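Thread: Newbie trying to understand structure tokens

Hi all, I'm a second-year student working on a class project, and my supervisor (Dr. K.) asked me to get a predicted structure for one chain before our next meeting. I've only ever worked with sequences, so writing a 3D structure as a token string is new to me. If someone could post the tokens and maybe explain what I'm looking at, I'd be very grateful. Here's the chain:
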Amino acid sequence: MDTTKPAESKLERVIRKIKRCLALARSANENEAATAMRQAQALMRQHRLSEDDVRASDVGETQSRMTRATRRPYWDRQLSGLVAETFGCTTLRYRHWCRQSERVVEVATFVGVTPSQHIALYAYEALLLQVRQARKEYVAGVRAGRYKSRYSPDTAGDHFAIAWVGQMAGKLRALVPTGEVDLELEQHSAGRSLVTVQAQDQALIDLYLADMKVGKARKQTERELDLDAQIAGMLAGSKVELHAGLATGDEEQVLLASA
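---
Reply by user tm_fold:
Sure, no problem. This is what the structure looks like when written as tokens:
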């Protein structure tokens, strides 16, 4: 397998130089900072780039390897949306023709300011494996008569998974910084509060998506859920422990464990 990296384009090299100059422009040495800023501005003028263009180069997208035939179920989309919101990304539903399975499949895609989209993808796939397994076991229990439901086993399993995913909201938010640390961030990042950073990142993501044809999400119709399945899903989800590595994409850590 060819492991060589693709050649860096001329524009990418220019942007990398501009970023290096902008980083040097924050130097405590006034002469060095002024020289670096002039070089950055000269490169931007020469190549007709704005600071937004440079910052937007940090935005990227990453696609899940875990596919579903035709359309992902609601609880799967609910999970990707929750993860995207937690890590400051935008999630998209992408359908394409899969040559291996010879059918149309749908996958989750995350768009964010690097490395947030990679962290979001890692968290999503780790949690998706867990909820799929938990749902599978619950569906088997309904079929075997261990759990009662007035719905079909698969539908009851969907209701179980919706409640399971709902339990992840607070657990995920506990892994990332919140507004409570804004003061500390301001002291260490020239006044850029967490809220400011999030707003700037979202603006860059919106700029990245501006030229893409992104359809509007359909409004989800309210549905009556199986109460027993909901309770079972909530209990199962509450026992899942998320470890700090999930918020950094650290694959060497054991990320999920059931209590």
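A couple of things are worth pointing out once you decode it. The chain has two domains: 10-56, 73-90+115-258. Residues 10-56 form one domain. Feel free to ask follow-ups in this thread.
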